[in-house]
Amino acid sequence: MLDYWNEYPKIQENLIQVKKLISQRLVINNKSIEEAITKFSSTGGKMIRPALFFLFADFGNKKDQEQLVKIAASLELLHSATLVHDDIIDDSPTRRGMPSIQSRFGKDVAVYTGDFMYTSYFELLAECMSQTPFLLKNAQSMKKVLQGELTQMAGTFNPDQTIKDYLRNINGKTAELIRLSCHEGAYFGGADEKLQSRAKRIGSAIGLAFQVYDDILNFSLELGNEQKPILTDVQQGIFTLPLLIARDEQPVIIRPYLEKPETLSQQELIQLALYVDKFGGIAGALKFAENLTQKALTEIQELPEGKSKEILKKVATQLLERSY
Amino acid sequence: MLDYWNEYPKIQENLIQVKKLISQRLVINNKSIEEAITKFSSTGGKMIRPALFFLFADFGNKKDQEQLVKIAASLELLHSATLVHDDIIDDSPTRRGMPSIQSRFGKDVAVYTGDFMYTSYFELLAECMSQTPFLLKNAQSMKKVLQGELTQMAGTFNPDQTIKDYLRNINGKTAELIRLSCHEGAYFGGADEKLQSRAKRIGSAIGLAFQVYDDILNFSLELGNEQKPILTDVQQGIFTLPLLIARDEQPVIIRPYLEKPETLSQQELIQLALYVDKFGGIAGALKFAENLTQKALTEIQELPEGKSKEILKKVATQLLERSY
Question: How many CB atoms are closer than 10 A to CB B284?
């Protein structure tokens, strides 16, 4: 998936170095697990977090390439660890087009594999940022991510969940790490404090918008078919923005669906998706995400001119047009 | 279980402070989960790791009580996190006489709860040891623990596992953290390097011996009865020292039991336990553990005179007499 960065050879080259470092770090005494986790954490996604990190690092004048690669790798490793653990929880058969660690090796290996990735992440931080405030910031970020996950967990199947609850959860579970990636890029690249704050705000907006777009996609009927389950979030008791907007608009019609969502038939799920659209849930969520995207673009506009600014503009727009 | 320390009020007082700090750190936005994890990580065990830490801290002359309490808490939190994740893997219904996190709240909450504890551990380290070599040492220790767990996982159901494999695994999964507790105690208490090295060796010996005794207990027929499963390790494909010694002694008789251990009947398991005893597996493992205990006591004898030395002697003997 690094093909995504074909047009940006400098970023691509940096990400290849990150991949290489990750493989070197994930060494364990079992070749098949080692291969699976290395593949998983280095070939799967677009590596958005390290890419944002390098883009923001470009606005500074301090360049310690070895340190930058380590920090970028730490961000991807932390993200990968959360994915491995998420797959246990969702019983996901696949991830990034490959069998998930847990479906291939069992949940036992998956639990420890995720833990092992957390550890490698922690080791990288200990090596390269112990003298900076970002060691503690990382611990606090990781705590926020997990508080977001736990609070979302605890709130599943709650038909009275508020939009505020939803926003707080996604601010933790998704936006926090993207915000940290941008902030660390600016800091470790040597940008000034004003630019660091801007990087954080851009990261927040991109992170939140990304999650909202992703949640909207889950209501798309085109993506579901008879073979494929639809509205999987709803069935798992995870009530996201489109649904919450529709519920607040027409509680009498929508709320009954949220009482026992795991028992809804295919027919009822389709009806619910149509209602969510009809009562403005999709439009409202889209509007919300577009505002965030606009906010990110306005802030990006204020960055110093240059290649990185242009790439950030393109990437923010593309990423937020459709989920990945 | 802090009653165990009734005779040692100073240690008990320190451990109460550790419990308090842990409760303060494990704050999440859900009261029932928060209560369960706080209870779990502060009321359950004997808190052996923080206790060993404080005992060794006593041999130095540098006393920053706040820092010591934080580090002791980090050791207990790391241990608790591994227990929460172990219970997912074993599907354990109980832990420390209470329902396990996963049986009470489900594996989803248990995965994130363990992760959340790791994070709180990491946060404590970031706060109080970022200027010392122990930040990196902690990351490396945690990596060893997980490599031990993963290697053991990968080696389950392997009838040709060697005694060397077994020792390497328990050196990682159990001894590492106990060794770290003793080493950190000596270092952060301000003891000299010679005493730090001794603390490490004592921790290694105690940690290994403890695990071997624990593994021997799993072969005790008295502990099993018709209601309670026996030889649970064997049934899960975990082949420990008593079994490996007996297999090496009488491969023709023992090895067939290791081919499909999950299919063995109650009768066959009892027969296997009797064989392991008959062919010297229990005696051999006991001898091995006793040698380690003796090694620990000989090293403890070399420590400076004082209350801590006396307590260490008693504790090492008691702990290693029977598992806990």
Answer: 20
Q: B143-324: which CATH number, 1.10.1040.50, 1.10.600.10, 1.10.620.20, 3.40.50.1820?
A: 1.10.600.10
| Predicted-complex ipTM score | 0.85
When scoring A101, A107, A112, A131 by the number of chain B Cβ atoms within 10 A, the one with the most, hence best to mutate, is A112
How many Å apart are CA B249 and CA B64, to the nearest integer? 53
Q: Quote the CA–CA distance of A297 and A293 in Å, as a whole number.
A: 6
Q: Tell me the H-state helices in chain A.
A: 9-25, 31-43, 48-57, 65-90, 101-105, 107-128, 134-155, 163-170, 176-189, 193-217, 232-235, 241-249, 251-254, 266-278, 281-301, 307-321
In chain B, which residues fall in CATH 1.10.600.10?
Answer: 1-131, 143-324
DSSP category for residue B261 = G
Which chain A residues are closer than 8 Å to B130 by Cβ?
130-131, 135-136
Cα–chain-centroid distance for residue A175? 7
Contact B245, B163 (CB under 8 A): yes
Specify the CATH class of A1-131 in words: mainly alpha
Token output for A263: 């028992």
Whole-angstrom distance, CA of residue A75 vs CA of residue A53: 9
Residue owning tokens 């004898």: B301
Q: Measured between beta carbons, which residues in chain B are less than 8 angstroms from residue A138?
A: 122, 126
Query: Which letter does DSSP use for residue B220 in this model?
Result: -
Domain with CATH 1.10.600.10 in chain A: 1-131, 134-324
Contacts with A131 from chain B: Cβ below 8 Å: 130-131
Q: How far is CA B107 from CA A43, A58, A77, A140, B41, in A?
A: 28, 42, 22, 24, 17
Which residues does residue B98 pair with via DSSP β-bridges, in sequence order?
Answer: B95
**B140 interfacial to chain A (CB closer than 8 Å):** yes
**For A121, which residue in chain B has the nearest alpha carbon?**
B139
Annotation: CATH topology of A134-324: Farnesyl Diphosphate Synthase (1.10.600)
Instruction: Write out A243-305 in H/E/C secondary structure.
Output: HHHHHHHCHHHHHHHHCCHHHCCHHHHHHHHHHHHHCCHHHHHHHHHHHHHHHHHHHHHCCCC
pLDDT tens digits for chain B (324 residues)? Answer: 678 888 899 999 999 999 999 989 888 777 777 777 777 765 667 899 999 999 999 999 978 999 999 999 999 999 999 988 888 877 777 777 777 777 787 787 888 889 999 999 999 999 999 999 999 999 999 988 888 888 888 888 999 999 999 999 999 989 999 999 999 999 999 999 999 999 999 999 999 999 999 999 999 877 545 556 688 899 999 999 999 999 999 999 999 999 999 999 999 999 999 999 999 999 999 999 999 999 999 999 999 999 999 999 998 888 766 543
* CA separation for the pair B307, A116 (Å, rounded): 39
Q: How far is A172 from chain B, CA to nearest CA, in Å?
A: 12
